[in-house]
Amino acid sequence: MSYLDDIKDAISDFDEDRGRELAEEAVDEGVDPLDILDVVSEELGKLGEKFDAGEIFLPTVMSAADVVKAVMDVVNPVIEESGGERDSEGSVMIATVEGDIHDIGKSMVASMLLSNGYDVIDLGRDVPNEDFLKQIEEKMPDAVGMSSMLTTTMGRQEEIVEALREKGLKDKIKVIVGGAPITQSYADEIGADGYAKDAIEATKTLNKILNN
Amino acid sequence: MRKGVSPAENIRLLDDDDVREIHNNILHIMENIGLKLKNDEVLEFLGDNGCEVDFDEQMVYVPSYLVEECIDSAPSSFRLGARDSENDVMFQQGRSYFCSCSGPINVLDQEEGFKKPEYEDLEESIRVGDYLENLDVVWNQYTLVDDELLGLQSLKAMLTNTTKHIGVFNWYGRDLVGKQIEMLKEVVGSEERLRKRPPATLYVEPASPLSMAEEHAEAILEWTDYGMPVLNFPIPFAGATSPATIPGSVSQALAESFLGLVISQLNNPGNPFIGGTWPFPMDLRQGKSTYFAAEALLIQAVTGQMADFYGIPVFGTGGCTNSYFPDAQMGTEMAMTLMGAFYGGETLIHDIGYTGAGDAGAIENTIYGNEIVSILKRQAEGVTINDETLALEVMEDVGPLGEYVATKHTRDHMEDLYFPEFLTREKMEEEREPDKKAMKRVRRKCNDILETHNPEPVDEETEKKLDEIIDEASDLA
Ligand code: B12
């Protein structure tokens, strides 16, 4: 039991290295990786709620999310290897679109989704359509999130949706969009499944469209 | 000729040692931590000129002596040209100049709400900027949403709707900037005129922390080939993309800004350069970018003081607000950011008219901001002490229980006083009349300007040429 408590402490101390080490040791000692996952998700979920309520600041959530990510990186492969079923809300691949280097908002959305139990694959910023589509086809996430902050780059979102449609993936993968120039009506227009104006809403929207 | 204005006294927060510490911090960042520059051609250029470069990592490290040389070679004063030479700006560090905001993708009409900008809205915002006496430099207040050739359309709108100096955004790098230069040349007549009285300043933003996009680096090279002024202004969010502490954040920002200085000076020694740093930390409680924060007044003063130390003009932010309404928040934030930038000693004070934290531009706010600047200019006159202003004689004449209204002394000095256009007292008796609000007066003024103010147009031939250049460029988008 103490490993789990120690991991919780590593999260509240924002100690990424210790989180990783503890996770490795715990797995070696035979602690059930699913238990570890439960504990870290629960911790992060609590922080997310407090952030929602305005009780704690963003750096606290983001720093804790870094520790959780380090722990997950150790634990997830072990679970997958043993054929175990993780209790995930689903997987989301997220990126800032081609030609756009604004990534602060996108990274916040990624952290919030992570803290709400999603598996997040963050491709970064200024991701060429071609690479984005290749990654989507390879990993087949449950949902794709696209961020654009410039009026000159929002068209990339439409192009990706269109390409998914052409590849017959549009029904299999949900699309959620966001960024300063994006609106609900733009999302509707290009055929995205969801839109959110900020990171907190992003989780709610995604929960809704994935029926979680 | 527009000559700028400086406050009666600057706010100074640092002593000499503090300034040195920040300076050394900047040198250390540039030489040892380095900056990411995603453009091999520009990296090669910098490598050939004495910087250490790492092509694999796309990093550049600028030795301190070189940074110092570039600081020395950058001019502290230069001329900004304008279509009408009366509007040329004698631009110098140590004085302040004011400029409308640029960029937002929404028009905010304080009575009607949001709408998407059309080309006519760009034109209107520029005409208003042209009219407002306190704006030395004019920019289109919005960007078009559906147009891929943003830089060129905005430039055309500016060239045809104001006779003042203008600012241009870089959107796509060297090719587009090349077209922008072609358009400018068309309007001023020759390359020599471009160099002598550059009609536009190029605006680029490095990305915090410590990196510059590919298109920006090459645009600076292209632009400074013509000796025109360039402005490299980072938007660090203290606590998110720069250190949460002010000295660290300002050091990082100036290092980012100075990468533009180094590129411009190495390419064309003595090229006009404007640096600076964004003064608003991120709201770490909400995770939002803001256009007002209490710390702005500290950051603006530190930046202004560093500008003094370097003798390099800096871009500042004032007259903007997080509010989406014509309300108390708007008035407070606009005034405080303008005061912070002005008393802090920032040089080109931009952002007048941004509303909703940059989500929209409002020309009514710009007009209101013009009045705040008038008030700052009144303060800048300071107080003169002499027998006439100490006024003993008139006091003797008037004596106890007398009055000053009808004296010569008052008549002689009444025009020293500033009479506001919008911030007036409107007596209301039985009930409060919304129609007498300051922002209603602003609104009427706005309608008035749009109806009556038509700046000297460019001739038809030139306008046709501009359209041709834009047409030819359509494949650049
Ligand atoms: C910071 C900033 C920059 C930084 C970016 C640094 C970085 N690492 O990201 C720098 C300095 C590099 C930059 C550069 C430029 N910028 Co800029 N920038 C901004 C600024 C001030 C804030 C953006 C931000 O980070 N906000 C904070 C985050 C937390 O909020 P957010 O991004 O909106 O994200 C939230 C939501 O939108 C949503 N969300 C975001 N993504 C997603 C995705 C999904 C799937 C979902 C569901 C939700 C979601 O959730 C997020 C969290 O709550 C905005 C102003 C504004 N009002 O947005 C201008 C702004 C976006 N930039 C603008 C411009 C013009 C530029 C430049 C072209 C300027 C230039 N010539 O140099 C360059 C473009 C470079 C490029 N090729 O991309 C304009 C855009 C105008 C337009 N027509 O589109 C803006 C609007 C400023 C303005 N008013 O003029 N910029």
Automatic annotation (TrEMBL), chain A:
One of the protein's GO biological processes: methanogenesis
Domain of life from the UniProt record: Archaea
Family matches, as PANTHER family: METHIONINE SYNTHASE
GO MF assignments: cobalamin binding; cobalt ion binding; methionine synthase activity
Family (UniProt): Belongs to the methylamine corrinoid protein family.
NCBIfam families in the cross-refs: pyl_corrinoid
Protein name: Trimethylamine corrinoid protein MtbC1
B12-binding domain span: 89-212
Cellular component annotations (GO), alphabetically ordered: cytosol
Swiss-Prot/TrEMBL keywords: Cobalt, Metal-binding
Coiled coil (UniProt feature): none
Record domain B12-binding N-terminal: where: 1-87
Organism of derivation: Methanohalarchaeum thermophilum
Automatic annotation (TrEMBL), chain B:
Gene Ontology biological process terms from the UniProt entry: methanogenesis; methylation
Biased composition (Basic and acidic residues): 448-468
InterPro entries named in the record: MttB-like_sf, MTTB_MeTrfase
Keyword Magnesium: no
Region (Disordered): 448-477
Keywords for this protein: Methyltransferase, Transferase
Gene Ontology MF terms: methyltransferase activity
Family assignment from sequence similarity: Belongs to the trimethylamine methyltransferase family.
Name under which the protein is recorded: Trimethylamine:corrinoid methyltransferase, MttB2
Taxonomic source organism: Methanohalarchaeum thermophilum
